[in-house]
Amino acid sequence: MTIAPALTDPVVDELCQVVGSDQVLTDKPARFNRARVPAPFPVHRWSERVPDVVVLPGSTEEVAEIVRIANAHRIPVVPRDGGTGLTDGAVPLRGGIVVDVKRMNTIKEIDEVNRTCTVGTGINMLKLNEVLARYGLIYPDDPASYPCSLVGGRIGTSGWSLIGSRYGHTRDLVLSFDFVLPTGRVIHVGDGAGHKLSKSSSGYQLKHLFMGHQGTLGIATEATLKLFPKPEAELSPFFAFPDYDSAYRAVGELARAGVATFAGAVLFDEWKVDYLRRDDEAYIPQPADVRALVCAVAYGYEDEVIAGGRRLLRIAKENGGRYLGDEVSEGDWAARHDRYATPLHGRTRAGQVVPMSWHCEDAAINYSELPKVRLEWHEIVRKLRDRFDMFDDWGMFAYTSANTGVDYLTEIDVGIWEQRLDDASWAAWVQAKKDIAAVALRYGGSISACHGSCREGEVDLVPQELGGGYDVMLAVKRAVDPNNIMNPGKYGLDRAYEPDAGGVR
Ligand SMILES: Cc1cc2nc3c(=O)[nH]c(=O)nc-3n(C[C@H](O)[C@H](O)[C@H](O)COP(=O)(O)OP(=O)(O)OC[C@H]3O[C@@H](n4cnc5c(N)ncnc54)[C@H](O)[C@@H]3O)c2cc1C
């Protein structure tokens, strides 16, 4: 196990002085449980990724003080919120201190006049929206991990929302936040210096720089969020199609229609429908003639949702879609936050049911490229499954990212029998992830629309994706975090500290 050499008892004592000894955890379960995230994991190497100590601060000042101590002693710091991130961001690669911000979960202000709220970044959207509902308001950041991911982790990953085609994604919804830099200095970033501004042209757009960095640049502690009227009506019709091609055409037409209440559309391919039907994973009836599915979602006032919904239904019908009825439509959409929380299993090639965990590759792909990417991705997983009978293809989703349907969060879900992983199968899996990422780049996409791309495998392709932008990332990392204490080892950023790292000129 990696032990940060400087993390000695006197340092633990210093941390105890900042937060109190009951908020400094050194026992094995507390540390091992913060070593992993719900993504396939080389279980045989678990002990390599365990923090030396977990600290639970209660305020921005405490976070700043912890980071100052870590920086003075050159100890790695890994920020952790819900621990649901799927790109290993919250997994400590070098031991050190996990700063778990879950105690910082209060609502500091609800400003009904400017339609904002200010919260500790340890709050989850479910709890926040329960309170906002009393004011007729909603914070519409709606990932599938809605009940368990937290505002700080949404900032750390620059998350993607299921209803982002109407309301925007995390980057649009977070107006500003307090941010502890790796030196322990606290800054406020937003549009300009504003706490509640949605648009400023003053200076660099630092808010975006300090989002999606996977905790490599610092820790967000308090955030001001944009609020909306709680929608009166929600429409989520599911349509069945006899084949992928007609479903693909329909999803494009739905997304391009310009319906104002359109909040998103989801395309399920044949592999996904087969998987859902195979073991009744969806807990909803799937008629046998259904080969592909499309769901279109509209949110807003009842009258506008009815009017927009009529148009969406007509478009789906004109493209060969058959409405699957209210029970399937409402039930499946309502289950969007629960699906992956259920115990998971997959099948071997011979059809034996075995325990498997879920892995999701999530590229951003233009609409025009979806069919080609889909076939290449399934082929990569098929070859992997042929070599190692511990992987299972759970099919693909494509979700709109914007209300024009320009690009889609394109996801292939792979089941992995984790307990069977060994070095050879892990290496093959890492290579498969690289191959999947390479296909996305070849078709002009991005490695990740949603989770980030810092996992073993796809992370090797990030310099290729970003080109000169990656050199700027290295320079920024070195300037902001001179001692490489903040989540070291992620995104290949260690190379920023090599003597020949070069500059950006
Ligand atoms: C079932 C399931 C469904 C999912 N669906 C979606 C989805 O629809 N959309 C989506 O975007 N994601 C989804 N995810 C992935 C995950 O929920 C998101 O990436 C989420 O944003 C992570 O939030 P978290 O609070 O769990 O963060 P964590 O996992 O704790 O952290 C994520 C990253 O952010 C960093 N970080 C954590 N807290 C802070 C902070 N306060 N300041 C700075 N950096 C910080 C961490 O170091 C890490 O690198 C899903 C995950 C699961 C398990």
Automatic annotation (TrEMBL):
Family indicated by similarity: Belongs to the FAD-binding oxidoreductase/transferase type 4 family.
All residue ranges annotated as the FAD-binding PCMH-type domain in the record: 47-230
Keywords: FAD, Flavoprotein, Oxidoreductase, Transit peptide
Record-linked InterPro entries: FAD-bd_oxidored_4_C, FAD-bd_PCMH, FAD-bd_PCMH-like_sf, FAD-bd_PCMH_sub2, FAD-linked_Oxase-like_C, Oxid_FAD_bind_N, Vanillyl_alc_oxidase_C-sub2
Entry protein name: D-lactate dehydrogenase (cytochrome)
Keyword Mitochondrion: no
EC number: 1.1.2.4
Stored Pfam families: FAD-oxidase_C, FAD_binding_4
Requisite cofactors: FAD
PROSITE patterns, per the entry: FAD_PCMH (PS51387)
The keyword Oxidoreductase appears for this protein: yes
Top-level EC class as recorded in UniProt: oxidoreductase
